[in-house]
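pipeline: protein-struct stage 2 | run 1193 | Hpr(Ser) kinase/phosphatase
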Amino acid sequence: MRHSSRQQATTLPGRLCFNVLGCSVEVRWYRHDFGDAADAAFRGFAPFCSKGRAELCYSVDTDNLGGDQSVVLRDHEPIATARDVGLLLFEVQRDLVVTLQRLRPDLLFFHSAVLQRDGVAILLAAPSGSGKSTTCWGLLHHGFDYMSDELAPIDPQTNLVYPYPVALTLKSAPAKPYCLPVDAFQTARAAYVPADVLPAVQSQEPIPIGAVLFVRYSPLEQKPHLRSLTAAEATVFLYPNLLNALAHESMGLDQVIRLTSSVPCYELVSAGLKSTASYVASYFTTGLS
């Protein structure tokens, strides 16, 4: 596993350009130890190869405060300062998610992981700390392909969900047998598993939603189970995960109701990672429809 203290033998500034949701993004850095972090986080996105200026430009630069303090800038405007590489990366990722909502107000943005099987997507929605990313990591070992760890951009007109293949982020080491790969990038904050080293294929195109799962980890449960939800129940679960309600009529509530009324929705009460991943994979063994 690579660690954030590893120094890159590259010329500064470093630069990474990619496309996401039809928007071009450039990330530039002026400290050696940020290069591996940026590469791990964003190399799953399609490259932006044009010689023109990207629509969205980030820079991680040394600050005038001295020491190892660095500043994150978006389009030359400072947005955050930090010393730790993991925190700097977090600030870039956080701002990118917020800014994409402004650039693509036509989409619904949900805090959710997204996997796919047989050309149909399954959303894993949950508040932070509910085991969403860990469950996602386990399911990637059981026939599901990767679309996103943290963000589900959905076209409300078609119910197509777009890939957002940022590195899968795990704040604690997963249980055996789903150990982290040696190419995971470790910071003090979390481990980042780049999309191209995941134990599954990376999906590149928007696909229809087949089901929505709301993950709730319960350490007291002996075995996992799925509970089918009504559209009203699912709306109560899903609506708090909508990030850009202000961009839509009726605060996005009508679109969420249409979504939960059109696909099966479940509450997933998870237990141990292996038993949960095996159970969900078996439940959907005939495919999502």
